[in-house]
What does this fold into?
Amino acid sequence: MSIECLTSVSTRGDALGGELTDPLITVIYPLFDLRGRTADVVRTWTEQQTLSRKHYRVCVMSSGEDASDQHALPLGDSDQLIEVPQANDAAMWNAGAAKATTPWLVFIEGHSLGDPKCLEHVAQWISAGHGVVGNFTVRHSDAHLMARLADRWFGQIQSIWRSAGTWRRVHRSGFAIRADVFARVGGFVSEYGQFAPALLSARLDTLAVQIDDISGAAVLHLDDAATRDHHYDTADYARGEIACRSSEPQDFFERYFGHSDLWSNRLCRDRNMRRRMLRAIAFVAVSHPRHLPTLITIAVPLLRDAIAGTSVWGWLQRALIKLDEFAIDHLPLTSKLQWRRFLRAHRRVVTQAQYDWTRHHLDPGTPQAAPVSFPVEAATPSDLGGIHALERFESRNFRWTWPMFVLRIDSDATALELHIDTNGLRGNPLDSLIAVVIGGTILPRSALSVKAGVWIIALPEELASAARDGILVICKALVPRRTGSSDRRCLGLPIFTIDFKRAE
It folds into this structure.
């Protein structure tokens, strides 16, 4: 559905003129993650804007934990203070939007100071009548190290967002949006914390909503004083992103945020499944010793993930992050070394936050029940493990697997046929196959066949019930970089669709 299908709100006319009798804009300000004196930040929106107060109102959102400071807030007669207990800023923004009666909303962070002409430029942009969502320019102080690093960091990120062919994101520090569009897209999903504005942006893009830059509208972002505080927000974003993957369709999520090896392959990181996979590798090595070099190559990542998933490894990574934080904040490093440390620490924080999240969500869950047929993008981490990102071939989605992958199905123990459509992208699948292991048994070649690019695996009744624990497929590795490709992956088979049928 495109933006043309949304309810229209008239915004033409002179937004600064006296003919408007009702406010045009509601500024929604959350008392969350405050830096500096709250009253000073609020004042930049309630008293220091050049736009006439009859054209906008300010809605201050509070969790109720700072009641002693709220009596001194510089609020005008049309402004409002609303309590949203135990809420993060995304939940406060939603609550403020629900209370707003104006056709336009402005969302800002609790540490965003408004430039005096910010709302005046917003009103002029609205008056032009061409925009639906508009970002503010986000400025940073150069008064301390973290502010300078944040200025460089966010500047580079937002430059990428503005590049051609890249979908746009709203700036959580400050942006304006038409109220009916915000309602149509569903608002913020507050349980995803710092990631909520990114998800909102992706949903806006699915509606073909263009996100503009509002010329002249600016905020001063008050940055964290210490690297540790910046990392707190980074970790919150990383946890929100991977948690969101568990509830959003995978094709949608990967289209906007890319593939997550940690999330998509959590089945292979389940302790019991990893043991089955390693036992299968050892079993096949004994039966097919000529494939030992390939089997060792397959086993190494499984062992590495086993180490990375331990609490000891997590403790070591957190210790390294603390060391980076100390070095950035306190050691006399050159600006080049500070920047390199900053980037390295950021990567570690993201990786560790997502490892911590997946460690508590490794339950493989219940696979789909046979008989069932589904495209590969509909396979969940409970059904399929050992996969790479979604790709397209001739308008169809497919995934390359790892050289070893696992399929699960909830069977009633009757004989099954597993049909895997590879579309012939790697030729005859049997030419790439080393072994199929199920229930500790290597399937004989007589149980494997190919018809019109579809690989068929026959599971006799005595083995079909073991499919719930995993059908383990081991292939010869396809390594594109050996032929000069820049692709660094190690590939198994391409999968387009998976079909579990009852055997005739």
